[in-house]
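Researcher: I'm comparing several assemblies side by side, and this is the next one on my list. It has 271 residues spread over two chains. Same procedure as the others: predict the full complex and return the structure.
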Amino acid sequence: KSTQAKISSFFGGG
Amino acid sequence: MFEARITQGSVLKKLVEALKELVTEGNFDVSSTGLTLQAMDSSHVCLVSLTLRDDGFDHYRCDRNMAMGIHFGNLSKILKCAGNEDTITLKAEDNADTLTLMFESANQDRISDFDLKLMSIESEHLGIPDQDYSAEIKMPSAEYQRIVRDLTSIGDTVLISATKEGIKFSTSGDVGTANITLRHNTTPEKPEEQTIIDLKEPVALTFALRYLNNFSKATPLAPQVKLSLTKDLPIFVEYQVGDLGNVRFFLAPKIDD
């Protein structure tokens, strides 16, 4: 089983 | 005021068709250096970044920075009214609540203008780090489109593995399994038909095919596409739009529980 990661967990807010 | 004119209006039509299903709305950020857009899909799994440089337009003027909130479905409706050979001019006054699109036919015998209502969109800007990738693959954009389309008919996710042997796309589903391997191939005379694999270290990542398939809607914009992969990071899919700029897609990986 795998989970879909969110893009914001890789690229910080700025 | 803002004014941007492009003789090859079909490029704008193709751009909006490429983005409209992935992102329903977003801000066109205009400044003296060009037009940019950064937007996430509704589930916040992928990010689209569009850059159109000022010098890529036939005429470009922007007196002050503005964020123009665009509903892409509505912009698409208007751009469908432009002919493929039309010159398109985008115009907006400072702090305007509409964006004017003017279409001129190639022989100047038909001129039309449409006003698109702008929206106020709160958008979170993400910082995309500059980084070195473990594997970079340049391939014909039509080949990428075919691979993701074919695999989407078999499975929901794809394992992309880059090794010395080449780049392998694997999926499985109810009907069975599929593996497609591409090898480094610089024999075609035309550079846009070549496949170039630049591998620093082997890498394997899993992604949702639905999004990779959606990115391939940008195929009409560029003969080549570049995929960049690094362990545990989003895949980066890039289309160069001639001298005008680029469209970049980032998709977060599936992570094993």
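Model: For your comparison table: The longest strand of chain B covers residues 46-53.
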